[in-house]
Specification:
single chain, alpha/beta, Immunoglobulin-like, TIM Barrel, 2 domains, nine-stranded mixed beta sheet, eight-stranded parallel beta barrel, 11 helices, 19 strands
């Protein structure tokens, strides 16, 4: 206790009467897939369902082999994959990365134009009919994935030239909108918001009036300021866009790639704190949707990629997912839950109305919200260089005086959760009497995430 008493202190301020509008935690969405065809296992999909996601972004990768030969469709691999995702309760953002060999007989990620445009459009039409019309699962259709780097991004289309990508985009969205006029269409899922073909796509759609409902990009970085910068650059790019501004979607994001791959790293509190700080930064900047990558770590099997990936591309995938796997998943390959799963559980518990909140310490990131009978504050102790232990004092004002139940949850080294039930356990729970202005001190270890709630008892 003496050591805690001597720690530096940071102050956080939350005003229960300064309401900023709706809080929509479901805009912090999830991303999955691109590695193999295995559906989400029961434990994982039930765990994700507990988070009540509105959207999950997925890869419709060629390994599903939905068009194995001319005039024949095969849904036997993709249907179970989609069924498992549907069990989470989410709608889907489907990224089109199929490349049927019958339309692309040469394995070369730089070849993006199919041998028959009309047949490509028929394939896309049947894909959309199956998963947006006959089975209303997909509401957003994203054209291509990391088309600025091709196989380096795990998918078989390299289309860095904006004019080429625009032609591919326009050709592909035509059958999507004919089959499902309510679809939202966009792309190009670039590795960064400034990378072509994203700026060129925006400009060409602006000039021609071609439908563009959203733009998408990706980022793997540990500095929250970099994530904020992406949103600000996207806003500038879209400024003055005619009609309704396209939505901004970061359809893949996570922390930086680690130079060392170890199961232990996946459970360190710094990983969850990095994810939390970056998530808060993006949404504070005004992002429409973020999609954390990914839900469940997977094994890469080379054989299903052989028909559409080069040998170098396959070797890259083996290295990334088998030899030095990134371990980004909320669940590991063995379905073990990781700490950042509970970050999303915390977000879902915050409430539905955002409150004004501020911090006097740059290392303390704060987000506050309320519901009818509860006020909540999420605190993240994170410095991109090196975090330090703190004592945080949360100053709450504008409260309705009365009896409250104070509950504190914290993600740190101690792994306070029930594995079987995926239930986060409290550090402390106690009754208090709170006047209109009330404060609460809490120990905030370096790289920890805390959720403080005050629930009315009478």
């Amino acid at each position: 206790m003496t050591a805690i008493s001597s720690l530096p202190r940071g102050d956080v301020h939350v005003n229960a009467q300064d309401r900023l509008g709706p809080f929509e935690p479901w805009r912090c969405a999830l991303s999955h897939g691109g590695i193999n065809t295995t559906p989400l296992p029961t434990r994982v999909r039930e765990g994700i369902a507990q988070l009540r996601p509105r959207l999950i972004r997925i890869f419709l990768q060629e390994h599903f082999a939905i068009y194995p030969e001319r005039s024949r469709f095969d849904w036997t691999r993709l249907d179970p994959f989609m069924d498992a995702l549907a069990d989470t309760g989410a709608k889907l953002v489907a990224c089109i990365t199929i490349k049927p060999p019958v339309l692309f007989p040469t394995v070369d990620h730089a070849i993006w134009r199919p041998t028959s445009v009309s047949e490509w459009q028929q394939v896309i039409s049947q894909l959309v009919k199956r998963y947006s019309v006959d089975r209303p699962l997909v509401s957003y259709w994203e054209v291509g994935n990391e088309t600025d780097i091709g196989e380096g991004g795990g998918c078989p289309f390299l289309i860095p030239d904006p004019k080429d990508y625009f032609e591919f985009y326009r050709t592909t969205i035509k059958p999507i909108l004919e089959a499902f006029p309510a679809a939202k269409v966009g792309g190009p899922a670039s590795c960064w918001v400034e990378n072509e073909p994203l700026p060129g796509l925006v400009q060409l759609c602006r000039e021609t009036g071609v439908q563009l409902d959203f733009v998408s990009w990706h980022l793997y970085h540990d500095d929250p300021r970099r994530h904020t910068a992406g949103v600000e650059k996207a806003k500038a790019l879209l400024a003055g866009f005619p009609g309704k501004r396209p939505e901004m979607l970061v359809t893949e994001w996570s922390k930086s790639f680690d130079p060392v791959s170890s199961q232990d790293l996946a459970f360190l509190p710094r990983r969850a704190a990095t994810i939390a700080a970056c998530l808060l930064a993006m949404h504070e900047a005004g992002l429409d949707w973020s999609f954390y990558y990914h839900i469940w770590d997977q094994v890469f099997y080379p054989e299903p990629f052989a028909s559409f990936f080069s040998s170098d591309g396959i070797a890259m995938m083996v290295r990334h997912w088998n030899e030095l796997p990134h371990r980004f998943g909320m669940f590991g390959v063995g379905e073990e839950v990781r700490p950042h799963y509970f970050l999303y559980q915390m977000l879902a518990r915050l409430g539905d109305e955002r409150l004004a909140a501020s911090s006097d310490d740059a290392d303390l990131w704060v987000l506050a919200a309320r519901s009818d009978r509860q006020l909540s504050a999420l605190l993240v102790n994170f410095d991109p260089r090196c975090s330090r232990d703190l004592v945080a004092t949360v100053h709450l004002s504008g409260l309705q005086p009365g009896r409250k139940l104070v509950t504190l949850f914290r993600l740190d080294r101690d792994r306070r959760w029930r594995v079987g039930r995926l239930e986060l356990l409290p550090v402390e729970r106690r009754e208090v009497y709170a006047p209109a202005s009330f404060l609460r001190q809490l120990y905030s270890p370096a790289d920890s995430i805390a959720l403080l709630t005050l629930t009315d008892l009478a």
